[in-house]
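Table 4 source record.
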Amino acid sequence: MNYIFIDSKDNVEITGVVEENRLVELYIDEKDYKKQAGNIYRGRVVNVLPGMEAAFVDIGEGRNAYLYIKNALPKEMIKKNGQIKIDGQIKIEDIIKNGEEVIVQVLKEASQNKGAKVTTHITLPGRFVVLTPFSDKINFSRKIDDIEEIERLNQIGKDMQRDSMGLIFRTKSSGVAKEILIDEYNTLINIFRKIERERNFLPCPKLIYKEMDLSHQIIRDVYNDNIHRIIINNKEKYESLLNLQGIIFPKLEERIHYDKSFDILSKESIMNDIQTALERKVTLKSGGYIVIDETEALTAIDINTGKFTGSKNLEDTVVKTNLEAAEEISKQIRLRDITGIIIIDFIDMKHNKDIDLVLNKLEESLSFDRNKANIIGITKLGLVELTRKKVRNSLSSRFVKKCPDCNGRGKILDRSIDKSIFIW
């Protein structure tokens, strides 16, 4: 069964997505934690760094935010395809000045070592469309692959487009009536106009648009005909979500269930999936296993046959292990919310047909992820490279602390070694 649960108690709200009785997404929203991704601020430039082609912006959230040159370019300097239009040598100091006030949106949450990453190119997501006011293009979700539907949506986009403001048709827009799409597009434009009017109003820095809370975002982005139930144990949250009922969220009321007794701590399957997502080693049903190491630079994933000996020959055993691992890896990437560079070391395969089979399985499994991962290819050493966009910090960052003994290296010095050998 597929369902969404919202467990809200003790100032902590845990939202999860379960598909085929497996936990595939988990988000934790603490009341005293200031979520930033998607928020829009009126900020002040405090430092322009020519050597980094970037600037630091005070958005009033503690650590200054990071604004890269491409994300600071005025609308007229951006081509229709979203790339930089270069007229000579563009320098960050020619675009933005110290003390200047700017409207920025958070692209990536702040981490332990870095401030939030921001952009001046505001985008506003709805359930069916995303408003892109700094581009006049009409784009489509990659998951919409029906040519006739793309042509229909493209014509709708042309008919409803206003003031050269572009849009992206999300996956859920497929098959949706024209009137609903136009209504949402106009609503997003009105929100953007309100944001633009805040440019000349004090104080600065100031939060001028707050993205909806995580549970509402999940309902907006995940809810579809395949979600059978939405379980909530908080009456106030239940009533708040009922207000979403309408044309944009059809049959929502029928699927929302208020269950005061719901507690994820009593759900063994959910707790087992969470425990697995916090461990380094993940055992496969066949007896093989994968090892996931998250580092600051990248995430490395290794596959081993373990106890799985197969029934035919070594080659068959390797392929079966890799296929099972590909499916599980995609689930762990999604659940752990692993982002950035990801390197997968599958067990060596001799034949190209087997390699293609495993890569196709990986791509197919990753297609269920809302945060699309891009498979770059295979290196000369046989390593699979992929990237996944970072929006929030990973699940482990909420639960795992750096070890004071090994300082995050995962190993400690052998205490039995005579330290005198290090005296020169």
